[in-house]
Each structure stands twice: as structure tokens, then as C-alpha cells.
Amino acid sequence: MFDFDQYLGFLAFLTILTIGFWLMIFLVSIIPYWIGGALIESMKLKREAKKNANK
Q: Domain tally for the chain?
């Protein structure tokens, strides 16, 4: 049915596909968290700078 080369190619394809899938899941879950944290941190810094400027 399959030659050994075809079998290795199929395994390589499945490996690359699986790595890509888990990388996509990782990035979709981490990047919004990272951006949200950066936005919250910048809002805190702006609020603190505004508070210190009014003193």
C-alpha cells in the first residue's frame, strides 16, 4: 500500500500539521492576554501620571 518513503512523508506531514495546530491554539490564547495586560498597564501609568501632575 505505502512505500516506506511515502510513510515517512505522511508522518512528517502529520507532525507539521499538529505542530501548526497547537501553535495556533497557543497564540490565540496568549496574544489577547498579552495585549490586554499591556493596555491595563498603560492605563494605570497614565492614571498615575495624571494624578501626579495634579499635585
A: 1
Q: How far apart are CA 21 and CA 29, in angstroms?
A: 12
Are the C-beta atoms of residues 10 and 2 closer than 8 Å to each other? yes
How high is the mean pLDDT of the chain?
A: 93
Reported pTM: 0.59
- List for the chain the helix, strand, coil content (%; round to 5): 95, 0, 5
From CA 33, how far away is CA 40, in angstroms rounded? 11
User: Residue 25: which domain range?
Assistant: 8-36
pLDDT at 45 over 80: yes
What is the chain's alpha carbon radius of gyration, rounded to the nearest angstrom? Answer: 24
